[in-house]
Amino acid sequence: MHQPPSDTRAGSTPMREHRRRGAGRRRPSGDGRRPLEKLVNGKHGPKNRRTLVKAFHTAPERLTAYISPLGWAVGSLGIVCLAVFPVLGWHELLVCGTIALTMCLAGVIMTLGNTRFNASLKLSDERITVGDMVSVSVSIDNPSRTPTVSADGDLPMGEVHERFRITALTPGKSQQRNVEFRATARAVLPVGPLRICKGDPFGLIRHERSLSDAIKVYIHPRTVRLNTLDSGRFRDLEGGPSGQVVDDDLDFYGLREYRPGDDIRNIHWLSSAKTGTMMVRQYEATKRTDTSITLGVDPIDYRNENEFELAVSLAASIGAQCLLQDRPLKAQASTQECSPHTATEFLDWTSSIEPDLDENANLAITTLKNSPNASFYFFVIGSATNLARIRRVASALPKASVCIMLKASIGQESLIRQYDGFTMATVPTLDDLPLVMEALK
Questions:
Q1: Among the listed residues 156, 219, 138, 148, the one whose alpha carbon sits nearest the alpha carbon of residue 183
Q2: Distance CA 435, CA 437 (A)
Q3: Which of 81, 295, 351, 360 could form a disulfide with 93 if both were Cys (CB 3.0 to 4.6 A apart)?
Q4: Is residue 226 part of a domain?
């Protein structure tokens, strides 16, 4: 009987040959792809690839954030000492390397723990005046299901940092802390963000995280309340009603009986014919009260910092009074410009004014660029400002406008002088401003 040729080796059986061919093979599971290949090329492959790339790129930044420069130096020193020890055989290197790496390991262990705090900041008032007290309420709670570890809190308030200890909190518990400070200078002061810091006492490993956003505190300059400002340009088409009834203007108000001496051109003949009595027109005076305030901020023009702050307070007081009377206002200080609608908005702007050595010496240029058609121009300057420079500024203004120069000059007497084209008033203190403004009427 004919037998088919066989490929099996001598001494092997078909069953053994089948097992030998199947040896080393794994039965594919699922779609037959390896776990890493499935992670990158699977259904959510693009998203996973972006996550891996982001983690790869942010790894150095995270290491730098957790390990301080001193930690990098100590860790590198420990590795170098242990690497050189087998070559040189110095036991001092072994001891130094062991201690260095032990310190790093201890630092890592001390930073472990749950620090998932939530925090919020609340201010007693976001707008205060120089000299006022403000209170910052810090609320910290544990929203997680596990207890937190203790950590250090750091609350920056401008250049000052308030540091305090945050105790360990069980789930759902909170901790309150109040921080008070006095506003000693005009500024826009950032409070926060609150940061937690956890690390080792050697300063090798640190863990910092921001828990809240920063809040701005506007510290306004001191101001003084002024009486009503009545100055303005009468009989102006762009003016508004002033409440004053006159015999000749643009805005018709009503009629009255004729009195001897009245201008015959103001007689309303139709009404006179109806009533049988001579009737004369009356008008409500229109007055344009657009006001411009320019503050000189060149520190050379001021003898000291207190005089500069006095100038800011003078400008802030006049501007706030204009806005309280609904007078249109535009203000400028060097390159900073403001067209506020409320007194609060204007005072917020004055909180950020700083001296500027690069200010244009001719204040009229920046003034006319921002407010070319104002009816009233205020310039607040320092005591060291040259009179010739003041004359040049006043001569560049519109002839129909009113120009007043307020010179902040601590230690001198209040004085008002009338010059050709402008009036200059010397104001030694903020309390003298109301009297000066009354005299200027």
A1: 219
A2: 5
A3: 81
A4: no
Looking at the fold, whether 312 and 426 belong to one and the same domain comes out as yes
Q: Which of 220, 251, 278 is the last residue of a domain?
A: 220
48-52 long-range contacts, CB within 8 A, separation 24+ = none
Sequence-distant (6+) residues with CB within 8 A of 286 are: 234, 235, 236, 237, 239, 240, 241, 242, 249, 250, 251
**DSSP annotation string for 11-22:** T--HHHHHHHHH
> Collapsing DSSP states into helix, strand and coil, what is residue 211?
coil
- The CATH number covering residue 408 comes to 3.40.50
- Indicate the average pLDDT of the chain: 80
Residue that finishes a domain, picked among 65, 86, 110: 110
pTM, two decimal places: 0.68
Residue by residue, DSSP assigns 332-358 as: EETTEEE--SSHHHHHHHHTT----TT
71 versus 348: the higher-pLDDT residue is 348
**Which residues have C-beta within 8 Å of that of residue 102, sequence separation ≥ 6?**
none
For residue range 193-248, what is the model confidence (pLDDT) as tens digits?
A: 888 888 777 778 777 788 888 889 999 999 999 886 655 454 444 555 555 655 56
List pLDDT tens digits, range 36-75: 455 555 555 565 556 655 555 555 555 556 777 888 888 8
Show the domain range for 401.
291-440
Q: Do 296 and 383 belong together in one domain?
A: yes
Which residues sit opposite 376 in a β-bridge? 291, 402
State the Cα–Cα distance between residues 354 and 166, nearest whole angstrom: 37
